[in-house]
Write a structure and sequence with these properties.
Chain lengths: 302, 263
C-alpha cells in the first residue's frame, strides 16, 4: 500500500540520541584512523561512520563504542537501498536497527538511490528514474525505516552520471517531496549537487534554493575528480578522494546562507589521508559555520 | 523496452544486466545521452561495482593477494564476481566461495597450497567480523548430573571455525602477511595435512593446530552433536582436556539438552 500520509512521530521519538550532533564541523571516521582517534582524542565536534562497517562484532565495534563515549556520532548507511522496486531488505533493516540501538547515534542517514534488485547487490548508489512510481517506492521505504528505527531519517541527495529518459520530476523537487510526505530530513550533499549539476547541466544554486530549509539536518562536503571521456567530454566523479573543490566551498557558503548553521561533515573514502588533513578541512568548514552564525545573529538583531 | 515507459522493476533489472553482465541492450536505451554515449555513463557504475567488490575480496584475502600478485588477483576476482555477485550489502560476508574459484583456476594451479591458504583466510575474516556472543557459563553446565552432561549439545561461538588444509596453510599465511621471506622459504609445502581451529579471542583472532582426532571431535561438537555421540564418532583420548580448553577459551556460546535451548 502506498503511504500518502507521513507517519506522525511524537516529539520524544524525534530525539537526537543522548548526544545530539551539533551545528559544527565533523569528520568521517574510517578504519585507518580508529586507533588515532582513541589515542589522541582530536578536537573535532563529531564523527560519522558507515553503518555497514559495524554490523558484526569484535574490535571495530568495541572501538566505536569507546569513541561514542567521547564524541557525538552519526550513522550513515550505504546499503538500505531505499529505491528498490523489490521492497526493503528486512534483514538489512534489522541489522541497521541493531547498530542504531547499540550506538544510539545523534543522526541516522541513508541515500536517495537503489543498490539491490532480484537479490543481487550492485555495490553502488545507483540513480533512480525521477517518476511518481519511484517517489511512492522511496516514500514507502522511508516510512518503514522511520517506523522500524523509531526515529527520523535523513535522506541524502545523490550524485549521478546518467539520467533516465522517462524521468518527469526534477531531482530537487523529488527530494523536497520525499521530505514533505514522510517527515524525513534531508542530508544536503553540496558536492553531490555540484557534481550532478556539472554532469547534467543543472543550475546548482537553483537546486539549493528548491530544498526546504527546515528539512536540512546535515551537510556533506567531499572531493571529486574529473574523468576525461572520448570526444573531449568530461564527467565529474564523486570519489571522495581529495580536498573539497573551491567551487564546492562557494556553493557551501550559499547553502549556509540559505539554511543557517547545519552539522557539516568532511567525507573522505578513497586514499584516506592523515587525520590532520581531515582536521584542516573541518576547520575550514567550521570557519564558514561561525560566519553563518554571526550572520544569523546580525539578522535577528536587525 | 523503449516503446513504452519501463516500470521501476523492469528498469532495475535492465541496469543489473548492464552492470553485472555488461549488456546495455535495454538500459542503454533508457539513458539520456546528452553528448556522452550511454555505455560510457554506465561504465562508471560497472567500474565501481568491480572495484568495490575486488577490494572487498582483497580485504578478506590479503595473503592470497600477495601470493598471486595484484593483476592475477583482479582476474580471479573478476571471474568470481561474474559468477557469484553479492546478495547483500554486508560485504564482510562476501566471498565465502572464492577459495573454490581459486582451486579450479589454471593460472594459479602451480600454487597447490593456495586454496588451503584462502580457506584459512576466509575463516579468519569470518572470525574477525562475527557477532559478539557471551561465552557459555561453565557453572551452568556443571549443575547438570554426569549422565545429563553426556546429552549436552553445544552451540559454537559465532567466530569459531575449523579448516582442513593439505598443506601448511597457517605457516604460509603467517609468513606472507609478515613478509618474512626467510620463513616462507623454510616451509616444506608437503608437510601436511593440517587440522586448524580458528577463533576470536579478546586479543584477536587465534589460529591453532589440532590433531586429526581432536579436530574431528571438535567438528562434531560445533555441528551440535550431543557430547556422547561426538565421543563415539571421534574417540579422542584428550577429549576431557580439550573440552575444558574450548570452554575456558570461550569457543562455545550456549548449549541445549533434549533440543531445549538453555543458553
Amino acid at each position: 500500500m502506498i503511504a500518502d500520509w507521513p507517519l506522525i512521530f511524537p516529539a520524544a521519538s524525534l530525539r537526537s540520541g543522548r548526544s545530539p550532533v551539533p551545528a559544527k564541523a565533523g569528520i568521517g571516521l574510517r578504519f585507518p584512523h580508529h586507533q588515532a582517534v582513541v589515542d589522541t582524542h582530536p578536537e573535532v565536534a563529531w564523527l560519522e561512520v558507515h553503518t555497514e562497517n559495524y554490523m558484526g562484532g569484535g574490535t571495530s565495534l568495541r572501538c566505536l563504542e569507546t569513541i561514542r563515549k567521547d564524541y557525538p556520532v552519526s550513522l550513515h548507511g550505504v546499503g538500505l537501498s531505499l529505491g528498490s522496486a523489490d521492497g526493503l531488505d528486512a534483514a538489512h533493516l534489522a541489522r541497521v536497527k541493531g547498530v542504531v540501538e547499540r550506538i544510539d547515534p545523534g543522526l541516522v542517514s541513508e541515500h536517495l538511490s537503489w543498490s539491490i534488485v532480484g537479490g543481487t547487490y550492485l555495490a553502488d548508489l545507483l540513480p533512480l528514474p525521477m517518476t511518481e512510481e519511484a517517489l511512492d517506492v522511496v516514500c514507502r521505504h522511508v516510512d518503514q525505516t522511520q517506523a522500524c528505527l523509531k526515529r527520523r531519517l535523513l535522506v541524502e541527495n545523490p550524485s549521478s552520471y546518467l539520467r533516465f529518459r522517462h524521468s518527469t520530476i526534477p531531482e530537487w523537487e523529488f527530494m523536497a517531496l520525499v521530505a514533505k510526505r514522510t517527515g524525513c530530513g534531508i542530508l544536503c550533499d553540496v558536492n553531490n549537487i555540484y557534481v550532478s549539476a556539472c554532469n547534467h547541466g543543472w543550475d546548482a544554486s537553483a537546486y539549493l534554493a528548491a530544498l526546504p530549509p527546515s528539512a536540512i539536518g546535515e551537510i556533506h562536503l567531499a572531493g571529486h575528480s574529473v574523468k576525461q571521456l572520448d570526444g573531449g567530454r568530461t564527467l565529474r566523479i564523486d570519489d571522495h578522494g581529495s580536498r573539497v573543490a573551491p567551487e564546492v566551498w562557494a556553493l557551501y557558503a550559499e547553502a549556509l546562507a540559505r539554511f543557517g548553521p547545519v552539522p557539516t561533515l568532511i567525507e573522505w573514502d578513497t586514499d584516506v589521508p592523515p587525520l590532520e588533513v581531515l582536521m584542516d578541512q573541518a576547520a575550514r568548514a567550521e570557519g564558514a559555520l561561525k560566519e553563518a552564525q554571526r550572520e544569523r545573529a546580525r539578522a535577528i538583531a536587525a | 523496452m523503449n516503446a513504452r515507459v519501463p516500470s521501476l522493476l523492469e528498469l532495475q533489472r535492465a541496469v543489473r544486466r548492464s552492470v553485472v553482465a555488461r549488456d546495455d541492450a535495454e538500459a542503454g536505451g533508457c539513458v539520456v545521452a546528452g553528448g556522452i554515449e550511454p555505455a560510457a555513463r554506465l561504465d562508471i557504475y560497472r567500474n565501481t561495482f568491480a572495484s568495490v567488490l575486488t577490494n572487498a575480496l582483497r580485504l578478506s584475502y590479503p595473503a592470497v593477494h600477495r601470493l598471486v600478485g595484484a593483476e592475477c588477483f583482479e582476474g580471479a576476482a573478476r571471474l568470481f564476481i561474474d559468477e557469484q555477485p553479492p546478495q547483500s550489502a554486508c560485504l564482510d560476508e562476501y566471498g565465502a566461495n572464492f577459495p573454490e574459484t581459486l582451486a579450479r583456476l589454471e593460472a594459479v594451479a602451480a600454487l597447490a597450497y593456495l586454496p588451503g591458504v584462502a580457506r584459512l583466510e576466509w575463516a579468519v575474516s569470518r572470525a574477525l567480523h562475527a557477532p559478539d556472543a557471551e561465552p557459555l557459563d561453565v557453572a551452568r553446565l556443571a549443575a547438570f548430573a554426569e549422565n545429563d552432561q553426556a546429552r549436552v549439545r553445544f552451540a559454537p561461538h559465532p567466530s569459531a571455525g575449523l579448516v582442513r588444509a593439505d598443506h601448511p596453510a597457517d605457516a604460509i599465511w603467517r609468513s606472507v602477511l609478515e613478509q618474512d621471506d626467510a620463513a616462507l622459504a623454510a616451509i616444506d609445502p608437503a608437510s601436511g595435512p593440517l587440522w586448524l581451529l580458528v577463533h576470536r579471542a579478546a586479543t584477536g583472532v587465534e589460529v591453532s593446530r589440532l590433531s586429526e582426532i581432536a579436530w574431528r571431535f571438535t567438528e562434531a561438537l560445533f555441528a551440535g552433536c550431543p557430547l556422547r555421540s561426538a565421543l563415539e564418532d571421534a574417540p579422542c583420548v584428550e577429549a576431557e582436556a580439550l573440552l575444558a580448553e574450548h570452554l575456558a577459551a570461550g569457543r562455545f556460546a550456549g548449549f541445549s539438552l533434549d533440543d531445549t535451548a538453555i543458553s
